[in-house]
Amino acid sequence: MPAATVIEVTDATFAADVLERSKSLPVVVDFWAPGAAPAACSAPSSKKSPPKTKAASSSPS
Fold first, then answer.
1. pLDDT reported for residue 15
2. Where is this region: Disordered (predicted)?
3. Radius of gyration of the chain (CA)
């Protein structure tokens, strides 16, 4: 299997770099923008551990 290749694509190169390339091999596209609030908000929360509940933090009687 060939090694994965990461390519930065612009609006000008999207057709050639993604659409044409996808005719001969699988292509995965990660749409990203610096001001993408939903992604920016959810990314840090996925790395946080869940809050401790009273039952989980108390010792057994």
1. 94
2. 38-61
3. 21
> Residue 47, SS3?
helix
End-to-end Cα separation, the chain, in angstroms: 57
Alpha carbon separation from 40 to 23, 47, 49 (Å, rounded):
32, 12, 18
**Rounded to an integer, what is the distance from CA 5 to the centroid of its chain?**
16
Extract the tokens encoding 29. Answer: 């596209």
Average pLDDT, integer, range 22-32: 87
Reported pTM: 0.46
**Residues 17, 9: contact at Cβ < 8 Å?**
yes
